[in-house]
Amino acid sequence: MAPYCVLVTRLQQVLSKGVRRYHVAPVLCQRAKVAMSHFEPNEYVNYEMLEKNINIVRKRLDRPLTLSEKIVYGHLDDPVKQDIERGKTYLRLRPDRVAMQDATAQMAMLQFISSGLPRVAVPSTIHCDHLIEAQLGAEKDLRRAKDVNQEVYNFLATAGAKYGVGFWKPGSGIIHQIILENYAYPGVLLIGTDSHTPNGGGLGGICIGVGGADAVDVMAGIPWELKCPKVIGVKLTGELSGWSSPKDVILKVAGILTVKGGTGAIIEYHGPGVDSISCTGMATICNMGAEIGATTSLFPYNHRMKKYLSKTGRAEIAALADEFQAHLVPDAGCEYDQLVEINLSELKPHINGPFTPDLAHPVADVGTVAEKEGWPVDIRVGLIGSCTNSSYEDMGRAASVAKQALAHGLKCKSQFTVTPGSEQIRATIERDGYAGILRDVGGVVLANACGPCIGQWDRKDTKKGEKNTIVTSYNRNFTGRNDANPETHAFVTSPEIVTALAIAGTLKFNPETDSLTGADGKTFKLEAPDADELPTLEFDPGQDTYQHPPKDSSGQHVDVSLTSQRLQLLEPFDKWNGKDLEDMLILIKVKGKCTTDHISAAGPWLKFRGHLDNISNNLLIGAINIENGKVNSVRNALTQEFGPVPDTARYYKKNGIKWVVVGDENYGEGSSREHAALEPRHLGGRAIITKSFARIHETNLKKQGLLPLTFADPADYNKIHPVDKLSIVGLADFAPGKPLKCIIKHPNGSQETIMLNHTFNEPQIEWFQAGSALNRMKEMQRH
Q1: Are 370 and 361 spatial neighbours (Cβ–Cβ below 8 Å)?
Q2: Its Gene Ontology biological processes (predicted)?
């Protein structure tokens, strides 16, 4: 669609050549409005505001801007007065939209209901993808999920209808694939209640994972706060070829930066190598940026994005993005806080793991490393799909490998599962034959959902505690994440490598150099996979699974039963009493890695995500207690008996005793789940003291009225013992940038004082004083 001002300019040029001059009304020079999505025809892409804000900020800062800065600063609530300093100041932003997956949407919508507001202020959607357990196959698993989760699905559907939120029904697909297909676009600022929301950076947007309370702020029309991110540049040169894939880019970056190397920063990819990566490949890279702690990741707008937008029915957005392209790429000469360079032409296929996504190995080496480390080399299951790698191109490359094996009479030696990213992907790969090839090689096609990637897997081939290896194209491989078995050694790699390894059945197979033996006894080598990035025909949309919110929702009711075991209306947390937190007991001193999976496990616990009291029974059951080296076993300071963490917390709460958790590095990494903050608050926790925090979890703790504090000297972690009592003093003078004192009281009567840092600003201190961000919102509404 050509902009009106271009047509007017041409008209003026033609008329100026004649005898008469005509006046063209200025209103005609406004650009044509382009809808943000097919589902919201009256909500428009606002590049004019982005342009205006960018120009204000560029003039103020008087320097070239990175792309990340353009989009983030382009959404400032007040670009004229906002303090801007990367890594230090807090920005007040106006996101364009909100997206929520069904596990986190329950608590987000319960909090929104508690706010008393009649309707969301920005376009928002709910996506049912987390509650479908993989058991037998797509059709049966989906049917069972609809039955088991009927109460929750009904709540989300009716709450969406009541408050103006679009609802994607179970079977629609994974939230991030749906966003990429329908809602992401260059320059958008989108927040989502899932840590892999950065997937949308593959379409040139700033898409950030948050907790539900952050989503509530945006849906309520309140400016959203984000600590001004630093920007890490990743310059790509060369081009991908052969067995190397976009997944290998982020696996390589994860190996360089580690699981916390991106904390507080946006990863911005640039350079000539970008053009060799498909749009969905860029999304894969951005998606897994969550595994290095990045605020988000993104790529500059280019022809690959334009092609994807056009293929997914959004050519008008692509035309508008072309016009504003100068604002959708970094300025020449912009500076990054850190720069990483990767030559794609030299990049080899990688596989990362086990137990952490930043332990990187070339595929050529992993078999040898596994034998040396004592990891099982035989692969029990290969799993492809997930929000990270379930595009049409991903499925095509996996099918390309599978087809070669079938041509030689081979099938997978390992079990093999396939998860399409969306109903549109499922329908299209069925039509184009990919799904049939993957079934023929031994694959089971699962529902369009998260499934085993988030622990929704009713695995039958191993017993808990049995040592085994699986290989996936997922994003995370923390201990027990996929199947709740702490002895499952999970490795992450690309879908085509997963497929090749599943056919071979061993980590010792390198498809670039090794041969397989066909059914006829002859050896052969797999050729590098080849597949189209997008279908030749149009995408097949499959079944219509979207529910529009009605224009008039006045007659819509949302019911939550008082006896429900799945849903529970929220009660406000208690306000701060104005006093220091004295003589708090230590619930647990955590040893080593403690992700949100350790704090609030997923898998079978997902069914309680809408019921705070019930899900609190999983609080910290996966964390290792430094006192005895065990999980879910802590000393009750009053009875001196060891018992489960949640039971001990409940005992303290019942007896009116405040408690604290002491943690290690990067506490709360992983998922965005705010339950990991809600649960300790609900059970009487007051503070979490660690060496460092993951970004989303730190914010979630603040939102719920807890104190996330860090040791001024990380070595002070060793001064605290599980049997000590801790007092946090100085809260009457709680102020931004001002450390707090912590008095450690040892059982022998001695005590020592250490200093604790925090990152609270003035509004966040008000959250703490009010008892939570939601409480503070209600106070402001009353006033």
Answers
A1: no
A2: tricarboxylic acid cycle
